[in-house]
Amino acid sequence: AQTVTQSQPEMSVQEAETVTLSCTYDTSESDYYLFWYKQPPSRQMILVIRQEAYKQQNATENRFSVNFQKAAKSFSLKISDSQLGDAAMYFCAYSPYNTDKLIFGTGTRLQVFP
Amino acid sequence: SAVISQKPSRDICQRGTSLTIQCQVDSQVTMMFWYRQQPGQSLTLIATANQGSEATYESGFVIDKFPISRPNLTFSTLTVSNMSPEDSSIYLCSVSKVAGGYEQYFGPGTRLTVT
């Protein structure tokens, strides 16, 4: 069975600094999708970034980028120039190819200090 | 994108009763899912709601406990049956507009407390 592990329950960063959130996963498949979702306090879950496993190039979305290491089954999220609005719970998620269902990690709570 | 609403937003229910949660999307979607998020924890997929056929349940979840309907491409319901305090959770609906590992949009959730 596929599993997703986030080893950092909590992280903190100062405004304008950079922070990296870790995620590892376990799968025997070669094709799949990986995601980072953000869940702000009392607000809806939203997609931060998405990576297709067959693409070697790391995905980027403005201040958010990933370091995808397929052989190591690692998928970390880097947030540059952190802002107060980045404070949230961040979930790493794995989706098997052709199913669209999401398998979530346990989450990392990110605090941003002024 | 997709705008998702859920009703009720929260409820307090007595042990042994049932609650039906509604999920309404503002446009037709391909896939609809139901997740459970226990307080302070991660999300666990309960089932995929299939239009016109029985839902596909994940290991550990059964139809008798969590019956799901999906009568059309914009609406689904999840019923939590014969509730116990262990069912206290946030229940979230999510949708995917395009199959193939694309973005899922999540509803605001229904916070259920069972006493």
Explain the overall architecture.
The complex is a heterodimer of chains A (114) and B (115). Chain A is mainly β and 114 residues long. Chain A is built from no helices and 12 strands. Chain A has strands at 3-5, 10-14, 19-21, 24-26, 32-39, 46-52, 60-61, 64-69, 74-79, 88-96, 103-104, 108-113. The mean pLDDT of chain A is 94. Chain B is an all-beta fold and 115 residues long. Chain B is 0% helix and 50% strand. Chain B has no helices and 11 strands. Chain B has strands at residues 4-7, 10-13, 19-25, 31-37, 43-49, 56-57, 68-72, 75-80, 89-96, 104-106, 110-114. Chain B starts with a strand and ends with a strand. The model of chain B has no long low-confidence stretch (mean pLDDT 93). The chains are: A mainly beta (114), B mainly beta (115). Chain A binds chain B through residues 32-33, 44-47, 50, 52, 91, 95, 97-98, 100-107, and chain B through 30-31, 33, 35, 41-45, 48, 58, 92, 94, 96, 99-104, 106-109.
Helix content of chain B: under 10%
SS-based structural class of chain B? mainly beta
Number of strands of chain A: 12
SSE string of chain A, helices as H and strands as E: EEEEEEEEEEEE
| Shape call of chain A | globular
* Beta-strand content bin of chain B: over 45%
Sequence stretches where pLDDT stays below 50 over 5 or more residues of chain A? none
Major pleated sheet of chain B: 7 strands, mixed
Total number of beta strands of chain B: 11
Principal-axes geometry of chain B comes out as: globular
Task: List the uncertain runs of chain B.
Answer: none
Provide a count of the helices of chain B: 0
